[in-house]
Amino acid sequence: MRLLPSLLPPDQQRRLVAELRLILDRAPLYSPAMPGSGKPLSVRMSNCGPLGWLSERSGYRYSPTHPLTGEPWPAIPAMVLDLWHSITGVAYRPEACLINYYGATARLGLHRDQDEDAGDAPILSISLGDTALFRLGGPERKSPTRSVRLSSGDMVLLDGPSRHWYHGVDRILPGTSQLLPEGGRFNLTLRRVTRP
Ligand code: SIN
Ligand code: FE2
Fold this sequence. Notes:
Layout: E1 2-4, H1 10-26, E2 44-48, E3 52-56, E4 59-63, H2 78-88, E5 96-102, E6 108-111, E7 123-129, E8 131-136, E9 146-150, E10 155-158, E11 167-173, E12 185-191
Antiparallel strand pairs: 1-10, 2-5, 3-4, 5-12, 6-11, 7-10, 7-12, 8-9, 8-11
The protein binds succinic acid (SIN) and fe (ii) ion.
Residues 111, 113, 167 line the site of fe (ii) ion.
């Protein structure tokens, strides 16, 4: 995994948040259900791009439409596509941009991203707002892990073997960023879903 600190300068972070607000006006954040139990995740989610990642009682899947509005997801902003191409170096576009919102007490358990047919394509994640304690694991659930701080403007690139490594968010450090008036943290995860 490559941690890319402070890659997005503050003015670009603000531009990106403004783009996010427009997206979320059309595709509102919602509380996804955990597969099996149907209990709500603490992280609220939305998506942009041709496909969006959904967690439902019946399992995980990609969908071209928002589960509550039934509308297609808004497009991925041009500045986000530019970041994808310049940082990953790949010519094909991402198809899914998952938008996670972490309030003060939200967390995300250790998991691997493995619902994509494009298993070799890199994953790029962009952090905005409060700092997260991000847990970096390895190829197996029992692999050793370590904790790193992800601050606003930091990015993480999962490429090569690390594309399939375990990771999660232990917690958010409330009040560590002034970027979002409501507090909390947005994370954008860009993924290719179908084989390029
Ligand atoms: C994720 O793994 O889906 C999100 C990671 C993060 O919020 O940094
Ligand atoms: Fe993930």
